[in-house]
Amino acid sequence: MAKRTVTEENEPSRKKLKTKTGKDEKHAEDKPSTHEKKKKKDKSSKTSPGSDTPGATTSRSEIDEFMKTNTIEISDPLNKENPPAPILSFDQLPERDHILYEPLKKFPAPTSVQSATWPLLFAGRDVIGIAETGSGKTLAFGLPCLKNMVDSKKKLKPSHPRAVILTPTRELAMQIYEQLEGYAPRVSVRVTCIFGGVRKDEQREALKDTAVVVATPGRLKDLESEGAINLSKVKYLVLDEADRMLDKGFEQDIKDIVAPMPVSRRQTAMFTATWPVAVRNLANSFTQDPVMVTVGGKPSEDPRANTRIKQVVEVLDGRDKENRLTQILAKLTKESPKGKILVFCLYKKEAMRIERLIQSRGYAVAGIHGDLSQSDRFKSLASFKSGAVTILVATDVAARGLDIPAVKTVVNVTFPLTIEDYVHRIGRTGRAGADGHAITLFTENDKAHSGALINVLKAAKQDVPDSLFKFGTTVKKKQHDAYGAFFKDVDVTKSATKITFDD
Ligand SMILES: Nc1ncnc2c1ncn2[C@@H]1O[C@H](COP(=O)(O)OP(=O)(O)OP(=O)(O)O)[C@@H](O)[C@H]1O
Asked: Compositional bias (Basic and acidic residues) spans (predicted)?
């Protein structure tokens, strides 16, 4: 794969991509033909309970009970009265004995989001899946992707992958790749992971013979524009962390990447834990008759945190933060010397300062932020994952999606830019059914977030400190177009020129 990652290289000269795809296909993206619509409609009726599909062997009352207990809502524009039923066990997967599913045996049952989205995705429907952090979304979109590749009768054309999974950070791309690699080789499906910050040579080579590409948008666009990859045969597209991918920072890149893959000829899956109003309309333009699946209640203005995470908010004077942080770390490490602690900062410079502070107190600590080289970012992550260091200081590049085993506590030294980022940050703990703990230091500077934070705390049945109420309960409308985690991952000591994202 292009985990075949290497060191820096010079920028090669870029060729304009010459493909057969052109205007006609772009038009097709806007307006699917009646025939194509009908095809998808047929697929939708196939998934109704009682038909020959996964889920069909469970009684309606069992399904209703399951959906109620797990607060699953499924809204299908093509089948409003009788939306497709979830599957309740791995036995109900299509071709249940398929070799692809064997590694699932290590899990007791599908998670709620897998139960609800698998019947839809296996049947070829577009899906927008919204479920709490750490709930198994990667396999929710990953397994149907691999099955789709297995079922594909056509021979793979060199450099023409059939599936693309887009994700905002390099670490996340690698993590998705690693999860898929637990399944793909069993069915001889080749998966390649590409992202920026490393050499392109091996990525170009790997792209020649791959069915599935897991990528960050910038590098994929780059390789596409130089002709190393042609996306016109893509029939399965995933936007992981979909709200992040559709906000202003990535929107244009995503549009450019999907342009050669008409919406009518591809299946699109979008997954996330947070679904801000700002991106919802845009999401519709990337999908065709998507089924909306929500686990844990309909998405509201305020995102929902995983309820197994105990959230503690401490309101304090900004000048006391560092002292308080060292007290917290002393207490946490005394209680649980091996317990992993993830410390979030907003700025790169701040993260470096806090890392130094923690180091000066004698702790083994690593850092991860946008100023580090890619290999240092991977090294930090690996040593935190393995437990070689128990404290990791990070900016929001690590807020989303990263599945680090047994993070005991998340500490927010500085509040993130958006309430969605808060939910993603604390979601690094309490994963896969475990309990978690998050401590947030909140100062007057963060008061614009008090209303939204109070709502998140209340919705997750957490205590709201009186001191937080004094900042007000109004929820401010998003003011900045570039909502999202990375906006402030810039060097604030330089005059700001360009906001950079992972590529
Ligand atoms: N059916 C299952 N039962 C138990 N654990 C599972 C199951 N499916 C996946 N997992 C595990 O749950 C953990 C979290 O999964 P994953 O990383 O896909 O979460 P996520 O929903 O994408 O989280 P986030 O919103 O933070 O990106 C992983 O370690 C994964 O192996």
From this structure: 1-14, 21-35
Q: Could you tell me whether strands 436-442 and 407-412 are parallel, antiparallel, or unpaired per DSSP bridges? A: parallel
Q: Residue 136 Cα, ligand 1 centroid: separation in angstroms?
A: 3
For the CA of 427, the nearest atom of ligand 1: 26
Does residue 4 belong to any structural domain of this protein? Answer: no
Residue 38 lies in a domain: no
CB of 288 closer than 6 A to ligand 1?
no
**Is 500 a domain residue?**
no
Q: Do 336 and 210 share a domain, yes or no?
A: no
Residues 119 and 93: their CA atoms lie apart, in Å, by: 8
274 lines ligand 1 (CB under 6 A): no
For each of the chain's 503 residues, which pLDDT tens digit applies? 444 332 222 222 222 222 222 233 333 333 333 333 334 444 443 333 333 444 456 788 888 899 999 989 999 999 888 888 899 999 999 887 689 999 999 999 999 999 999 999 999 999 999 998 888 999 999 999 999 999 987 888 999 999 999 999 888 999 999 999 999 999 999 999 999 988 899 999 999 999 999 999 999 999 999 999 999 999 999 999 998 899 878 899 999 999 999 888 999 999 998 888 888 888 888 999 999 999 987 766 668 888 899 999 999 999 999 999 999 999 999 999 999 999 999 999 999 999 999 999 999 999 999 888 888 999 999 999 999 999 999 999 888 888 888 899 999 999 999 999 999 999 999 887 789 999 999 999 999 999 999 999 999 999 999 999 999 887 766 543 444 444 333 333 333 333 334 55
Q: Which positions ≥6 away from 239 have C-beta within 8 Å?
A: 166, 245, 246, 254, 268, 269, 270, 271, 286
Looking at the fold, whether 134 and 76 belong to one and the same domain comes out as yes
Give the residue from 273, 295, 317 where a domain finishes.
Answer: 295
Span between the terminal Cα atoms of the chain, in Å? 17
d(CA 238, CA 317): 43
Domain stop point among 245, 264, 295: 295
Number of H helices, E strands in the chain: 17, 14
Helix, strand, coil proportions of the chain in percent (round to 5)? 40, 15, 45
